[in-house]
Specification:
This protein has 7 helices and no strands. By secondary structure, the chain is an all-alpha fold. α1 crosses α3 and α2 runs antiparallel to α7.
């Protein structure tokens, strides 16, 4: 028998939403599992208006963007435009990079953002505590001056 095609699969068109970032759905599930959204909504200040994004929506988007290899807030646009991924992770909307930048500046402001900085510290501490508790180890070594000498 003569093979009719080179590859052992067929190519078809579809109207389904597809995504090149399907692996990020697993990271979104991990973030949910460690309680990222729940903790950020608990410890970070809510928006001043009823139209603003909840802290969890902003932090979750930034973390997911970084997990996907994003390097600047503009990379949020790539996530925002991934309709297949957004549907897969149950997100209707992601904040614009300017909105996220404004929020981050408010959280990091030394005077007005004091609650935000303390809240981010608390979120980090709670997540680290949950991860360490699940690990089951009794002690850890922190090597603050790790140097690899090759020669």
């Amino acid at each position: 028998m003569i093979q009719q095609t080179v590859f052992p699969f067929k190519i078809e068109t579809t109207k389904e939403r597809l995504t090149a970032h399907g692996g990020l759905a697993l990271m979104a599930e991990f973030n949910h599992g460690i309680g990222l959204r729940e903790l950020t909504d608990r410890y970070l200040p809510t928006p001043g208006s009823n139209r603003g994004f909840n802290p969890s929506e902003i932090v979750d988007a930034v973390v997911l963007m970084l997990q996907g290899g994003g390097r600047s807030l503009e990379d949020l646009r790539e996530l925002k435009n991934e309709e297949g991924l957004m549907k897969l992770i149950g997100r209707d909307e992601i904040a614009e990079p300017d909105t996220v930048g404004d929020w981050l500046r408010r959280m990091g402001d030394g005077k007005s953002g004091e609650v935000g900085l303390k809240g981010l510290d608390e979120v980090r501490n709670k997540i680290n505590g949950r991860i360490l508790k699940r690990d089951g180890r009794e002690s850890y070594t922190l090597d603050a001056d790790a140097t690899e000498i090759i020669g």
